[in-house]
Predict the structure.
Amino acid sequence: MNDDTTPPGTARHAYKSTLMTSEEMARALRRIAHEVIERNKGASDLALVGIHTRGVPLAEALAALIAEFEGVTPPVGKLDITLYRDDLTEIALQPVVKKTEVDFDVHGKRIVLVDDVLYTGRTARAALDALIDMGRPAVIQYAVMVDRGHRELPIRADYVGKNVPTSTSEVVHVRLASIDGDDQVDLWDEARP
Amino acid sequence: MSVTAIAGATDAAAARSLPQRPAAPARSGRRHLLDFTDWQVDELVALLDTAEVMAQVLTRTIKKVPALQGFTVASLFFEDSTRTRLSFERAARAQSADVMTFSAGGSSLKKGESMRDTLRTLDQLQADLYVVRHPAAGAPHQLARWTDAAVVNAGDGRHAHPTQALLDAYTFRAARRDATGAALPGAEAFGGQRIAIVGDVAHSRVARSNVELFTSLGAEVVLCGPPTLVPREFLDRPGVHVTHRLEEAVEGAAAVMALRMQRERMAAGLLPSVTEYVTRYQVTSRVLRSAADGAVVMHPGPMNRDVEIESSLADGPASVIERQVANGVPVRMAVLYTLLVGRR
Amino acid sequence: MSRVALRGGRLVDGSGDMGVHDLYLKDGVIEGLDLGGSVDVEHDASGTLVTPAFLDLHAHLRDPGQEVKEDLASGLAAAAAGGYGTVVSMANTDPVVDDPGLVADLVARAARTSGARLRPAAALSRGLGGEELTDFAALKAAGAVMITDDGIPVADSHLMRRACEYAAELGLVIQTHSEDPALRAKGVMNEGAVSHRLGLPGNPVEAESLMLFRDGELARMTGARVHLAHVSSKRGIEVASWLKAGGAPITIEVTPHHLTLTDESLASFDPLYKVAPPLRSAADVAYLRDALHGGVIDSIGTDHAPHTLAEKERDMLEAPFGISTIEVTFALLYTELVAAGALPLARLLHLLQDGPAAVMGWAPPRLAVGAPADIVVLDLERVREVDAAHLTSKAKHTPWQGTPLRGWPVLTVVAGAAVFERR
């Protein structure tokens, strides 16, 4: 889950409902791929950067779709934002710093940041800082599978798979085949004893 | 992987559970890095892995991350060392930490004054972490008892220099990966490998910390030097051997580390002469022939060229000495990050 | 003068266990057992052991000149709190006690100070410089009972020989600090596996054994009574006992810390454990403990060496050597040796009473009619944690802080007056 800010063991969660099935996720990705191509007038100078961990397989899937539609495969980078977070004190576990692998020059590129869930916006802000420290992109856009509301910063997504109003006790879990074995978006809530 | 692949039908909710976050190690809980006593292999490997990430940061256009913004790192150098101090300060600034420097030349650090009193004054400045170098073994350990801040040992007498050992291990691991072409994750690069450390071992904090670290990571360490500088019962622990014969030490070694031979040792009667030392213990390309294939030559610096190490060997293809120096900054970045993150 | 009764304690001295009695003191001496009659002061000693107050031949009271660490008042009071009735004070003060006037001054001031009795030692060489002998006869006349440069070894064997010859003629005991200065070098701890691991400069046992051999030989050669202070190692005991068996008029002292702490303590890098001679290996400590049983070791001396907390908070190379021991010595040794079953109580008491008396040629302390009323009442059941807040010495920080110990003095009487009472 994207919710790295939830300290473990503070609440026990139980499955509540499925927000998106595998087919719905696939359809949303195809739509987003088309939107990205349209908004950016093609795929030249386009690059996708997935935010660790779950943004990465999503970015790779998106790149494959763009290649299918446009015949051009945009490069895909992997971004670890641990060193840019502003909320480290709230993390109970020592954050494991993973490698950032952005093997192309970001200068002048049209970058689409990709993540699974947009919540408070802090991860997106950290990703923006990290990206800008690497160079000067021409444009940065932001794509997420689920926007669950409760923004704490003035951040918005350019491309959204599904908008889901949630409460703060709930957790949105985007399952991805390469990590969890299947594709599904689930909603979990605090278990009432 | 493509999300368009149809996965299995939706399972019953009861069969599912929220996945745990991927294997994040429990909070380090480490307040200080004084030496490697009680450090576990996974913590040591985590430092090396984090250093790799930090090294990548240093290749970017903006060689800086905001990870330690708002933290203050203070250097307390009771013993001068410009190189090490600057390496730590670079490591702090590259993570946006603020830096304060107190050095032996200044009036703030007086020999013989109660260290605790000195620390009380400094604590008013609210540093989050002290990097301490001191001529007396154990000084950082004493300071750590008296402060709430984190303490990193940058060298205490002859006892320890843990960040030097970490950068040596980091350099060694990278060299092994290059030599074998294999990924060698975790501590694999060290298992069963022999490291030879040659020279004035008895007076060397670098030797002591390297012994601790490399043996913890699974390597075998051979200590070699004249009997006056490498007592036979030295560091009697598993994985350590002592020999006074250089050929024996280097046999099959994956790395040979030469220690600086200080001329004061001659004055103190511990060695007859430089010539005597060079004849028996200088690390040369000829000596290296009995080492393992792809063996690397290391030195903690600064070098006495053509004393403990043949000058041409120090500059040759087997030498990773310059890489050791460069690796100091990312390794120290990883140490500062690991000790400070989540403290506030 | 007052008449004092100590009621219902078990009376024990070097002659044996006399059973439970009331002990009466009058005019500063022992009057007798179970005499009855009115008294001016009485103490309930039921459930305790009543025994002659201990003798310490080796304490640094730091007076004159280093009163920030300890002075006569605090030192003699601390000794009383430790159950000691008599203390021989060392001469390495500032100025050094190398002059009869300084000895007389100490004697006079001590007479006005409450606490254990003071018997001053005087320096062997002027200013502890190791070059010129002091005036032994004048020092003895002024009240010095022992000659010693303790704190510093006498490096010059010729000087030591001459000192032995003079002392022998005057019947004075010479106490030695036997460490070869060159081998000792800058060592701050025992040289061995631990010092190699910690990277601290080491002081090998051979620095002690070599010098003990020299001092013992000179004793044999001259007939001087030489008291070998703080022998710390197996090798040291072996050398000293061999010379003793060969007829050298030497006596052997060990300290409480060398019987209970090893060099592994230094792994904490805490200068509270920095002492000279250094804490030795576990094997040495075990050997010393065994050697307490036979006649090899003559006495236990505290080597009480107080320093200020600030001094002990310097680094390992700069901090001064010494441990503040006198108040906890009995409880420490009772707990670790007697209560643990490793040493009979009678033997421990001997090493604190008759043993030191014999070293000095003094009468063995007895609870006998007419003997000086120097008595300690010991509660052998009571367990207390060592706490700096409750120590009388100015040096309140000890390695045993927070350690629960059993067997504490609850009353110390000197010359018939109570000089220490534990609430």
In short: The domain at 20-169 of chain A is CATH 3.40.50.2020 (Rossmann fold). Chain A touches chain B through 57 residues (CB under 8 Å).
